User: What shape does this take?
Amino acid sequence: MAQQHGIIVLFDVENALRTRSLDGNTYWFDNMKLFGSAGVGTERLVTIVPGTHFLDGSQATEQVLNWLPAALGSIPPTVPRNYLAEQERADDRRTLDELASLNAEDGVSETDLKRLQRRVGKRPHKPEGGRGLTEAKLLDVTGKTTSGTGAYNYPAPVITDITGEAVSEKIMYPAQYGSPDMIYDGWYWAATVDTSRPGVYAYTMHIQLHELVERNDELVWESVDLTCESSLKIINDPKRNGFTGAGLGVLPIPPVPAAS
Assistant: This one.
């Protein structure tokens, strides 16, 4: 069975949109630091991909990479999928309760009306051709609805393609897959890696960020396409057990003490 490599890419979306570049605004992590991955936590990650061997030592099946992008400082993508909807409903209920508590005979003042309008929040529109972006009310970084454009929650970055040397040289074969997980709108990127050709191979990740802009008195998520790079380092060493450091096989089980 192929070994699964997880690669998490954190994006400083706010700064990347300001500078229109991902240089210095990405932080890469993988689960292979124990086996020699370099640059973990920086924008210069080199992911170690150990070779896969049959019992006789010959090269065997490929390895598998999985990429998960996330926005730095935003609501974690691992919260329940209905989190945004629940926050919207809770805010609407609070607003309605407050409206009902106002004195109907005195009417609603303009100040109260504006305050309630801010509480209701705005629902930014999804741009034409936008990908991986579910329409929802605009939330701030604490998960509360807002109508301003201050500190708000950015949508998760979206991987749109993976190219570069590792792909053109047929070292890895990336593709987008559907998933019932629904953390990333039901899509994620993975790739199989040919471990029979040791070496260092670079690849380019194409990322779509979303910038909140006002257009005709409406808020719109406008897509911004950028790229960043990383590398794979394929080695001859076979994959081994992370607990024992030995090759694949059963884990050592301590003897069961005899019953007294």
User: Anything to note?
Assistant: The domain at 4-76+153-238 is CATH 2.60.40.3910 (Immunoglobulin-like).
